[in-house]
Design brief:
- The protein is mainly beta.
- The chain is built from 8 helices and 32 strands.
- The protein is elongated.
- The two termini are 65 Å apart.
């Protein structure tokens, strides 16, 4: 007796003479047979299977996937009787593989030998002969496939379903239906042509369209295969009412507003699927499904049933990082998702900063609460608000501040977004024994372009360009009013060396970054210290401590800051094996109190780093040294973080 398991989609049928022959597209098969014959149990017979190449790599792969002899030869050895059963079974399986590729006049030869003469696999005395093979010797099984003539498609017919009008395809449907006379008569092509035609019909609104399993007739004299598809078109259908199941905290009105489809619109499966994926991308749900029945509503529309499984409402995370200049930072975050039932997210973060950094004079903190409201006014806009308390004891200045800001980010298209908002900040700053209080109002505006095709900013880019520009008009309202405007722009670009034929895609990448900034409207000392421009550190010039590039107070390591800044970086990124990588880089930059960039003393740093690639992004470790170190500058810097530097 035997057990048969086949992973193969329903086949087309080919009629030859009085019966059908299979047109099933071959995938993977497995069969376990026991041979019920013989008067005694025989010793197991080990064997080795060889399938001779046909010259067609795809056909050879199908033959290997279809052969039980090959797939089961490494399992426990079976008796000669059971092995003979495998051989007999392989004839039909391998013939099906040939036919699935259009070889309907092919032949399969299987021979078995012990190193000497061979026996045909159909020899009725084969089991008894194999019992004579000495113990420890493996039977040599050789499979030879003779494809013969490749059959091609003859006539192709579209038959209307019972009661339907004759089938006539329009231009788009004809382009989608790929089955044409003269094509190789391969089962996969025959089956997929029906699927693509059905897809084209449903995309035109024929929600009940169905293309049946094709029938096929062999014409041995002409080596052709005639194909007939039964087609049911049905009526053009619009979308009906939407039903939402599984919503517990989420308001149905938010889903309706977010959906990119609406009742009354033309039924199109691709738009329905895009709408499902868009809802899933909000992060509110662990699963989103959409289904419809096989019948229309009384008004002739197609209702849709959405089912949701909401994700976790609360989450806790940890945050940390380290560099020798800013020291360590560590803290926790707590998030409340779907706060009011419209996908809002509240995130509370508490961080301790300045753990042993060379640019720090002591421990600081950073506490903030973020509220994010997606689809604010429009599904292309998000609103965010933050309240934050900061204390940082830098060598440049000591700052204690409370700030609040609100902003809107608008996604213009897939590559562009703009943001605008407002911020107020009350702060106390000590610099060189001078204590000053500031109340600052600012209106930041920014625009960003991302042509890298990378959705996650932590994922390393391998090509394309990123551009970011911002302008922030500000006013300091304490001890007299001073107005100033901060402007900054950054451009980064990436080049994959695979375009020069030097590496595989994504393995060797060159990356450049350039930054320029300027402050207009006030001189350096008329601007609060935290609003001035600085350079040094992982964001600008590595090898120099944070704020370590630019003018300094005489005979100190205290940075003054400036009103113009420029910096550039170049990196060579090399992937090693699957999860590791290495980076070499050189950075340069300058800061000056002039209002024109590209003035001042240029500082250059160079270094190398290692990467370990994780599912959430690369873990980064960089070491950099200054090439023209200023007085009291650090001799080297170490940076540890998540994601590439740019």
């Amino acid at each position: 007796m035997g057990h048969l398991r086949m992973a193969c989609r329903p086949s087309a049928r080919a009629r030859h003479g009085a019966g059908y022959i299979s047109l099933c597209a071959v995938t993977m098969f497995s069969m376990a047979l026991t041979w019920a014959g013989g008067a005694r149990a025989a010793d197991p017979q080990a064997y080795v299977t060889t399938i001779r190449p046909t010259g067609n790599a795809d056909l050879d792969a199908a033959l290997r996937a279809s052969s039980d002899l090959l797939s089961l030869q490494k399992t426990q050895a079976v008796s000669p009787f059971a092995l003979t059963g495998r051989i007999h079974n392989d004839y039909s399986r391998l013939i099906s593989a040939l036919e699935s590729y259009g070889y309907y006049a092919g032949a399969i030869t299987i021979s078995v030998s012990d190193g000497g003469g061979g026996h045909d696999g159909r020899d009725p005395d084969l089991p008894e002969w194999m019992q004579s093979i000495p113990a420890g010797h493996k039977a040599q099984i050789t499979i030879t496939a003779t494809p013969g003539v490749l059959f091609t498609i003859g006539t192709v017919s579209l038959v209307p379903d019972r009661g339907d009008a004759p089938v006539h395809l329009n231009t788009d449907e004809t382009a989608a239906f790929s089955m044409k006379p003269g094509m190789p008569a391969q089962a996969e092509s025959v089956l997929s042509a029906g699927v693509t035609l059905q897809t084209a019909l449903t995309e035109e609104g024929y929600a009940l369209a169905h293309v049946g399993t094709p029938q096929a007739w062999l014409r041995p004299d002409s080596h052709t295969l005639d194909i007939a598809y039964t087609v049911h078109r049905g009526p053009v259908v619009n979308l009906g009412a939407f039903d939402f199941a599984g919503l517990q905290r989420t308001h149905p009105a938010y889903i309706v507003k977010r959906l990119t489809i609406a009742p009354g619109e033309l039924y199109q499966p691709s738009r329905i699927e895009r709408a499902r994926q868009d809802i899933a991308s909000t992060g509110l749900f662990s699963d989103v499904q959409v289904n419809h029945g096989d019948t229309l509503a009384p008004d002739g529309t197609m209702p849709l049933d959405f089912s949701f499984r909401e994700g976790k409402r609360h989450s806790v995370g940890a945050e940390g990082g380290y560099s020798t200049d800013l020291g360590g930072r560590a803290g926790v975050t707590w998030s409340h998702n779907n706060l009011f039932g419209n996908a809002e997210r509240l995130k509370l973060t508490a961080l301790i900063t300045g753990l042993g950094g060379t640019a720090e004079q002591g421990l600081g903190y950073d506490f903030y609460a973020d509220l994010m409201k997606p689809d604010f006014g429009s599904r292309q806009q998000n609103m965010s608000a933050r309240i934050e308390g900061i204390r940082q004891l830098l060598y440049s200045y000591r700052q204690t501040a409370l700030l609040a800001r609100i902003g809107i980010v608008r996604h213009v298209n897939r590559r562009w977004n703009v943001s605008f908002g407002g911020q107020i900040e009350q702060e106390q700053i000590q610099q060189m024994s001078n204590n000053n209080s500031y109340f600052i109002v600012s209106l930041p505006l920014s625009a960003n372009y991302d042509g890298t095709g990378v959705d996650n900013p932590i994922t390393p880019a391998t090509h394309g360009v990123r551009i970011g520009a911002n302008i922030t008009p500000s006013a300091s309202l304490t001890d007299g009013t001073s107005f100033f405007t901060i402007m900054q722009a950054t451009v980064s670009t990436y080049f994959d060396l695979t375009h020069l034929g030097l590496s595989r895609p994504g393995r060797s990448v060159l990356a450049w970054r350039g930054t320029v900034g300027n402050v207009e409207g006030a001189s350096t000392f008329a601007i609060p210290p935290d609003q001035r421009l600085y350079a040094g550190g992982s964001a600008t010039v590595r090898g120099y401590r944070y704020q370590g590039v630019g003018p300094q107070f005489p005979n100190t390591r205290y940075a003054i800051g400036g009103t113009s800044m420029d910096a550039g970086s170049f990196e060579y990124r090399q992937r090693i094996l699957q999860k590791f990588g290495a980076v070499g880089f050189i950075d340069a930059g300058q800061v000056t109190g002039d209002h024109v960039p590209f003035h001042g003393t240029v500082r250059v740093g160079a270094g190398a780093g290692a990467r370990y690639y994780t599912p959430i992004g690369p873990v980064r470790l960089d070491v950099a040294v200054p090439l023209n170190r200023p007085p009291r500058g650090d001799k080297w810097e170490l940076y540890v973080g998540l994601g590439e530097t740019f």
